[in-house]
Design goal:
This protein is an alpha+beta fold. The chain contains 4 helices and 7 strands, in the order αββαββαβαββ. α2 runs antiparallel to α3. The chain starts with a helix and ends with a strand.
Length: 255
């Protein structure tokens, strides 16, 4: 028999068998592969935890602003005053490691004038201003008054903020403690809610933790100016309420 004819017959036979196999394949009903809806029972509860703690860190932002006809003159005069300020801060018992620059800027200062004839406003460069702001972070809470007074006497002419806060180490410890208490609070609330329903907790499906909240009390810079009597600047710290929350989704079942 012709070789080409035999090859053609084989191809036709293979195609025929394949088509037959496809035609007899059982159809799959769409509903058979659809999973059954979950019969899992859940209860979502938010637990809270709050603590009142004493701050352990003092934060002061203050600095020196100077204005001169040239940028160099403004920078030189600012540097002299700032060196005096740093020395004064150190004399209050604050190490240099607790002092850092938070912002530094040099910018031109203009005055606007109106031409009486044309009524056109023009600007004239009158000098340059240098602003150097430093931040003090220290655990010596009782040093607030002496730090501020020493700095002002040395040349500080702006005090932006004074506030008491929690140090990073204290914040982390509190965060860990409060998160555990918040989760336990959620569990307690869930158990109480399930009693009249004759249900109980049989598992946990999801835990969502909220951010740790630490309010920062701020004090008005106007209260820092020392009176002529030479009395120390009064600055007081107070306890802070910190809180956190946790949302827990419990899997529940009947008793």
């Amino acid at each position: 028999m012709n070789t080409k004819l035999i090859a053609a017959m084989i191809v036709v036979l293979v195609v025929s068998v394949t088509m037959s196999a496809l035609s007899v394949a059982p159809s799959v009903d769409a509903q058979e592969i659809t999973p059954y809806p979950s019969r899992e029972k859940t209860l979502s509860v938010t637990g809270m935890a709050t603590a009142s703690v004493k701050p352990d860190q003092l934060n002061i932002n203050f600095g020196v602003e100077t204005q001169e006809k040239t940028a160099k003159e403004a920078l030189d005069s600012n540097s002299v005053l700032m060196n005096q300020v740093i020395t004064a801060i150190k004399s209050a018992g604050i190490p240099e490691s607790d002092i850092g620059t938070s912002s530094f800027s040099i910018y031109p200062v203009y005055e606007s004038h109106e031409d009486k004839t044309t009524a056109i406003w023009t600007q004239t460069l009158v000098g340059y201003k240098v602003s150097n702001i430093v931040t003090v972070h220290t655990g010596k809470l009782d040093s607030a008054a002496s730090i501020i007074d020493n700095a002002v006497n040395a040349g500080v002419n702006r005090v932006d903020s004074v506030y008491f806060s929690l140090s990073p180490v204290t914040q982390q410890k509190l965060k860990d403690d409060l998160l555990e208490k918040a989760v336990l609070n959620a569990k307690t609330r869930a158990e109480k809610a399930l009693v009249p329903l004759n249900h109980k907790i049989i598992g946990v499906k999801l835990v969502s933790l909220d951010e740790f909240s630490v309010p920062t009390p701020m004090y008005s810079p106007a209260t820092y100016a020392r009176a002529d009597s030479g009395a120390p600047t009064p600055v007081f710290s107070s306890d802070q309420d910190v809180s956190t929350s946790a949302n827990v989704v419990f899997i529940i079942g009947s008793n």
